[in-house]
Specification:
three-stranded parallel beta sheet; 108 residues; 2 domains; alpha/beta; 42% helix; flat
């Protein structure tokens, strides 16, 4: 079981097998993982909201950097560039459905 799964199950984290049981229990949660969140379009925002709600309910130590980039967002790409910088920094992202992807698929 991963450390994150062990913590979210309420049992705390265990260190190496060689430590005594009292020494192995960690009292503090693991540091929150920074995740870039791009809800997208259509059902994307609903799905990503559900993920956030579930993670909160089971105490997953995660913090979302949310960027509301959309297939409908036009003009200036500052928001898109900020989202890309966040993805590069965090190295983890969650993206909902995007309108631009559906358009590309329907034009085939």
């Amino acid at each position: 079981m991963s450390a994150l799964a062990a913590w979210s199950n309420g049992r705390g984290l265990l260190a190496s097998e060689g430590a005594s049981r009292a020494d192995r229990r960690v009292s503090a949660p693991p540091p929150a993982l920074q995740v870039t969140l791009i809800p997208g379009d259509g059902v994307g925002p609903e799905l990503t909201d559900s993920v956030k709600e579930i993670f909160e309910h089971v105490n997953v130590p995660v913090k979302f950097d949310q960027y509301n980039v959309s297939g409908e967002t036009g003009g200036d790409d500052t928001l898109f560039q900020s989202a890309m910088e966040s993805l590069k920094r965090n190295k983890v992202g969650l993206k909902g459905a995007s309108e631009s992807l559906r358009r590309a698929q329907s034009s085939r």
